[in-house]
Specification:
Strand 19 and strand 20 form a beta hairpin. The chain has 15 helices and 20 strands. The chain is α/β, with parallel strands linked by helices. The protein has a domain of 59 residues. Helix 13 packs parallel to helix 14. The longest helix has 42 residues. InterPro entries: LRR_dom_sf. This is F-box domain-containing protein. It comes from Favolaschia claudopus.
Length: 595
């Protein structure tokens, strides 16, 4: 038989497949040798058996085929991974269960603490609402107009708790006053703030630099025009025409203040401020441009202040219509007026005025008024020798015996001029108050006041100055007090010294000897009160040091200064702990024995 025979070839292929697929037979059948013994190979049979066992394992577990292939290819054992993942899931679920239990426990604890907190009744919250509201009103700043600051009442009170907020918002008295500046807040605040005041009279200060905003501000303020009580307007020029309220009833208006805050070169001033129906108006403060026409019910005013922008002749004409004035403050002075006009005002009791410049032809209000019932006179810019004749002529013309005299000096003031002015004052003066921008003016004051012929009825002396006093001046002060207290009857019950210092000075404090002498005067003369203060400007305001004060509840000695390194440490002894506490409040520091 030829090997190329198709039948023979087919049988051969079958023989090969039989050899590969046989499970246990070790025989290798050959069609060409049927009668012979089968050929057996132990080594080959072993390999076949191992391979067949492996293939049988794959057939019995098909799901493990792909992991098996992966294991073969990369050496990764998925069994270990599955075991680790399962263990991690168990731990996470266990931790989540623990956290859920902890959250539940903390929630219960929080609820318990909240319930305990809610059960606490604070004494201040148990007060009647009326008392709490009155306390809130007493917390308002002392200023006439309250600034909308979150650090001050009433806004501060609304941030404490819900109950206080409700009480504050429901107390109209807290919202009666507002200082509004257009650069700080919006117009909506003005409306909201004043709407909380209910039907009470309001005090409103409006300061606006932007002429474009004045219309919106007035529109908001006019909503409450029937409740205007104390009104202050600081406006740019050409904006006062919005105050033409001649046909508007203002039943509660008592005080009106007008002031212009800005002026541009293109302003055309033709404003008219007119108020006719304000039956309660009693006080007016006017500081405007001369071209602004102000028409008020002058006859019913009891207090009037005329500052810059009002010419002296116009002021005199206006004063003729003010028949009920009690208090007059006028700083108008004119260097060119030649009028001999005199205005008699019987009702004026308090006058504050400017004496004008040192020009020979300068004129002030004292040259043109007669005030027979004057009790208090305050003059500013006292410096020139011609001011003494001005005072003398006014006093002689008015035949007044006022009891209070205050004077502020300019830098040109001399001791001789001051002495001449004191000599023309009436003997009826019991209070003398002197203010100077520098300390040199005090030289000669105390020695001038010592004689019996100068202000014999003087009971109170107040001195406000800048700078320091020399040791000789302190000696003159002690001598003056001794002389006046030794009189029969004694005079000078109160001596008040308030000195302003620009900085710490090596001699800012009086010597220990002078302090002892002043203290001895208060012990020797019953009823004598001495108040001695030193003030100094600091970055956030001023610092006031009490040197000696027995006007209230006892004597206080200053023992500390703000900067003790620049002061004499042996000036003032520390006497007791109460002194140290007081000095700590005033100077911001404490010491052991000596400062």
């Amino acid at each position: 038989m030829s090997l190329d025979c198709p039948k023979h070839t087919k049988n051969s292929n079958l023989s090969l497949r039989s050899k590969r697929c046989s499970e246990s037979s070790t025989f290798r059948p050959t069609f060409g040798n049927r009668g012979k013994e089968p050929f057996v190979s132990i080594e080959k049979d072993t390999r076949k058996r191992d391979l067949f066992a492996a293939l049988s394992g794959l057939a019995e577990s098909p799901p493990r085929f792909f992991p098996f292939v992966t294991e073969i290819r990369c050496g990764f054992d998925p069994t270990e991974y599955d075991e680790a993942a399962g263990l991690s899931r168990v731990e996470l679920r266990s931790r989540l269960t623990e956290l859920d239990a902890l959250i539940a426990s903390l929630t219960l604890k929080r609820q318990s603490l909240q319930a305990a907190s809610d059960a606490i009744i604070y004494p201040v919250l148990s007060l009647p609402l009326e008392i709490t509201a009155e306390i809130f009103v007493r917390c308002l700043p002392a200023a006439t107009y309250v600034s909308p600051s979150i650090s001050d009442a009433p806004l501060l009170l609304t941030q404490v708790c819900h109950q206080w907020r409700e009480i504050a918002l429901g107390t109209p008295t807290l919202w009666q006053s507002l200082a509004f500046k257009d650069q700080d807040v919006s117009t909506k605040l003005l409306t909201l703030w004043l709407s909380r005041s209910g039907v009470l009279p309001i005090s409103l200060s409006v300061t606006c630099w932007d002429k474009l905003r004045t219309g919106a501000l007035f529109a908001a303020a006019l909503q409450f025009v029937d409740r205007w009580c104390d009104m202050k307007f600081g406006l740019p020029l050409s904006s006062f025409s919005k105050l033409d309220l001649r046909n508007e009833p203002l039943p509660n208006l008592r005080t009106l203040r007008l002031d212009y805050v800005s002026q541009s070169s293109d302003d055309i001033v033709s404003d008219i401020v007119s108020i006719s129906h304000a039956v309660a108006l009693r006080e007016a403060y006017v500081t405007t441009h001369p071209e602004v026409i102000v028409d008020l019910p002058w006859a019913q005013l009891t207090a009037l202040t005329l500052k810059k922008g009002v010419e002296l002749h116009a002021a005199l004409t206006l004063l003729e219509t003010c028949t009920n004035l009690v208090t007059l403050d006028i700083s108008t002075a004119d260097d060119s007026i030649a009028s001999s006009m005199l205005v008699t005002m019987d009702s004026v009791k308090t006058l504050t005025c400017n004496l004008g410049s040192s020009e020979p032809d300068s004129s002030c209000i004292l040259d043109h008024v007669i005030l027979p019932n004057l009790t208090r006179l305050s003059v500013q810019n006292l410096s020139h020798p011609r001011h003494a004749p001005t005072l003398k002529n006014f006093i002689h013309r008015s035949a007044c015996s006022f009891q209070f005299f205050a004077a502020s000096f300019s830098r040109d003031m001399t001791a001789d001029t001051f002495l001449e002015c004191l000599r023309v004052l009436p003997d009826s003066i019991s209070e003398l108050e002197l203010t100077s921008p520098r300390g040199e003016f005090t030289r000669g004051i105390f020695s001038t006041l010592a004689p019996d012929t100068v202000l014999p009825r003087l009971r109170t002396l107040r001195l406000h100055g800048r700078g320091v006093l020399s040791d000789d001046e302190y000696e003159d002060l002690v001598d003056m007090v001794q002389v006046r207290r030794a009189r029969s009857p004694p005079s000078l019950d109160l001596v008040s010294l308030h000195l302003w210092l620009f900085s710490n000075h090596p001699r800012m404090m009086p010597s220990n000897l002078r302090i002892v002498q002043l203290k001895a005067l208060t012990s020797r003369f019953s009823g004598l009160k001495i108040k001695f203060l030193l003030s100094k400007r600091v970055p956030y305001g001023r610092s006031t040091h009490v040197v000696l004060d027995n006007t209230d509840s006892g004597e206080i000695l200053l023992v500390c200064l703000v900067d003790v390194t620049k002061a004499r440490r042996t000036d003032i002894p520390c006497t007791d702990t109460s002194t140290q506490r007081e000095s700590g409040r005033n100077a911001g520091a404490g010491c052991g024995t000596t400062c």
